[in-house]
Amino acid sequence: MPETEPSSYPENPTWDHLEKLAAEAAQLAASLLRAQTGSQLQISAKSSRTDLVTDMDVACEAAIVEFLTSHRPDDAVLGEEGAGRDGTTGVRWIIDPIDGTVNFVYGHVGFGVSVAAEAAGQVVAGAVVDPILHETFTAHAGGGARLNGDPIAVRPDGDPSMALVATGFSYDHSRRRRQTEVLGELLPHIGDIRRVGGAAIDLCTVACGRVDAFFEVGLNPWDYAAGALIAEEAGAIVQDLNGGPPSRQFVFAASPSVADALLTLLQNAEADQI
Ligand code: IPD
Ligand code: CA
């Protein structure tokens, strides 16, 4: 992916500019979330009794869309909480106002705000902000990944048999038994598992070397669009289980030092067949 987009994009934003807008939008939402800590939330369930949404998910998505619209009114938008519009520029923003809503409700670290920019169907810039830790992860295609502005890289020297692997479980409870079977096949061969509660932050922990790898089935684009780019730009192998791009079927991100061994274990466990 070139660092500047083809001239067919009329407003001619650089990927670097889209990264900055994504970061500002996500930081705006993060400050709203920090201000809300400890206040009464309106909470309801979506796809299952454990898939929660709060009034803050909706308010943060609205604030992000308003900010992006003020800078780039003709871009398309896709948001988890229903924001959606077509655009005319070839750029589409993919927004998760709170990834890890259950953590947010419990006041548990691990939730984040995720904003990604896609051009011609490819994610070219993104930001994930951890409001509690005041951490802003960003990247643009071909430009590396950063944490609070400083370059980050995946853990260089992982040993697969000691690998720390992050994952997540489905809101669809019928799929969880099968997910525990996959874990049962994986766990004897690796170091340990982490289930923190937000895929966007999980992918950023791969990017900065706090875990060796991450995998999950059934994620939505807003959960992984920004985080997958940040992990890839930090040097991670990012793909589905069979070498294709990350997808709703399977998202895998790992340091190259452990990726092949983990992929073999996950393929043997048919980890995407859930
Ligand atoms: C969820 C989180 C969680 C993952 C779920 C996602 P949400 O996002 O990323 O870690 O296991 O699959 O849906 O619903 O809190 O935005
Ligand atoms: Ca969400």
- How large, in whole angstroms, is the Cα Rg? 18 Å
Question: Could you tell me the strand content as a percent range?
Answer: 15-25%
- Distance N terminus to C terminus? 32 Å
Question: What's the pLDDT, averaged over the residues?
Answer: 93
Major beta sheet summary? 8 strands, mixed
Helix content: 25-40%
Backbone structural class:
alpha+beta
Number of helices: 7
User: How many strands?
Assistant: 15
N to C succession of SSEs? HEEHEEEHEEEEEEHEHEHEEH
Estimate the global geometry from the Cα principal axes.
globular
Short synopsis of the structure:
The protein is α+β, with helices and mostly antiparallel strands. The chain is built from seven helices and 15 strands.
Description:
The chain has 274 residues and is α+β, with helices and mostly antiparallel strands. It is built from 7 helices and 15 strands. The protein has an 8-stranded mixed sheet, sandwiched between helices. Strand 7 (122-130) and strand 8 (135-140) form a beta hairpin. Helix 1 runs antiparallel to helix 2 and helix 5 runs parallel beside helix 6 (221-233). The longest helix has 22 residues, at 15-36. The model is unreliable at 1-10 (pLDDT under 50). The structure holds D-MYO-inositol-1-phosphate and calcium ion. D-MYO-inositol-1-phosphate binds next to strand 5.
Task: Spell out the blueprint of helices and strands.
Elements: H1 15-36, E1 43-45, E2 52-54, H2 55-71, E3 76-79, E4 84-85, E5 91-99, H3 101-106, E6 112-119, E7 122-130, E8 135-140, E9 145-147, E10 150-151, E11 164-167, H4 176-186, E12 192-194, H5 199-207, E13 213-216, H6 221-233, E14 237-239, E15 251-254, H7 256-268
Parallel strand pairs: 3-5, 11-12, 11-13
Antiparallel strand pairs: 1-2, 3-4, 5-6, 6-7, 7-8, 8-9, 9-10, 13-15, 14-15
The structure holds D-MYO-inositol-1-phosphate and calcium ion.
D-MYO-inositol-1-phosphate binds at residues 80, 96, 99-101, 168-169, 197-199, 216, 219, 223.
